[in-house]
Specification:
304 residues; Arc Repressor Mutant, subunit A; D-Maltodextrin-Binding Protein, domain 2; 3 domains; two-stranded antiparallel ribbon; globular
């Protein structure tokens, strides 16, 4: 059993698909299949259930994967600690967020204050964030949805109202507030399932026994306001986008939603068992040292 076999097994277990795993690993599919077969032979038990071309991690594979994840994470953190001890810089801090616009100014301010820090940024869904924290790919996630993986700890950064944005001239332009039943038939611009905007939209409508009419969905929440302004529909946008002056560049009208839980909570999430570099420690101190909204100077871009 060698390190390459374990990394290959970890990737196949994540995808439960030989072709996709082989594509990510950049190896030939037959070669990857043989690697998994040799590993199973060494262990004396199958790790996957096979049905034709489909594979599923079985109970023995799930047990083995937990130990493989832990062992590879420790090894990666050891290599990382060694690099940090050798290098003269502060090391690396890696951050994941559902939308890059949420943390762009935060990371820019941090980099300006700590120019020797190596800053990495990833865009991820909530599900992918949990994986990245578990495997040590990132140090922190700025998450708009609860992350519930083992050993994760969260600190609330901010809690903000979410408003309804409508195109200029829309029949709701000028209204103070609106109920969900009133907009039941309106076309919505939103994100795909897995993002916080879609989760909030679906929850608000489900509370009223309704389902939203989605006219446009995508993977970048920060693009929603542009599409709403262009008349493609209405949508839910965090209040900070109104406060930072983006309406002068992307004109929309703002309406409050008459629902108690129409808000977004941003949390800073980390794996408390993971090693933190000097750069990561300073990033946490920098982020928690003042209100999160203070990291968005007046007149900056949309922070959806």
């Amino acid at each position: 059993m060698d390190l390459l076999q374990l990394r290959h097994f970890q990737t196949v277990a994540r995808y439960e698909h030989i072709s996709r795993a082989a594509e990510e690993l950049r190896v030939a599919q037959p070669s990857l299949s043989r690697t998994i077969a040799r590993l199973e032979a060494e262990l004396g038990t199958p790790l996957f259930d096979r049905q034709g071309r489909r594979i599923r991690l079985n109970q023995y594979g799930a047990v083995f994967l937990r130990h493989v994840d832990r062992a590879l994470r420790e090894l990666d953190e050891g290599c990382r600690a060694l690099r940090e001890a050798r290098d003269t810089g502060l090391g690396r801090v890696a951050v994941a967020s559902e939308t890059l616009l949420t943390v762009t100014d935060l990371l820019g301010s941090f980099r300006a204050s700590h120019p020797r820090a190596d800053v990495r940024l990833f865009q991820s869904t909530a599900q992918d964030m949990e994986r990245r924290l578990r495997t040590g790919e990132v140090d922190f996630c700025v998450a708009s949805q609860p992350l519930t993986g083992a050993h994760l700890e969260s600190v609330e950064l901010t809690r903000e109202e979410v408003l309804l944005a409508v195109p200029p001239g829309h029949w709701l332009d000028g209204r103070e507030s609106v109920t969900i039943p009133e907009i039941a038939d309106e076309p919505f611009v939103t994100t795909r399932p897995g993002h916080w905007q879609r989760a909030l939209l679906d929850r608000l409508f489900a509370t009223e026994g309704l389902a939203p009419a989605v006219s446009c969905e995508g993977d970048e929440p920060g693009a929603s306001q542009n599409m709403i302004s262009a008349g493609l529909g209405i949508g839910l946008i965090p209040a900070i986008s109104r406060q930072v002056g983006t309406e002068t560049k992307v004109p929309v009208a703002w309406v409050r939603v008459a629902a108690e839980d129409c808000f977004r909570v941003l949390n800073l999430v980390r794996n408390r068992t993971a090693h933190l570099s000097e750069a990561a420690l300073r990033f946490r101190e920098f982020t928690l040292g003042k209100p999160f909204a203070a990291h968005f100077p007046s007149g900056t871009r949309s922070a959806t």
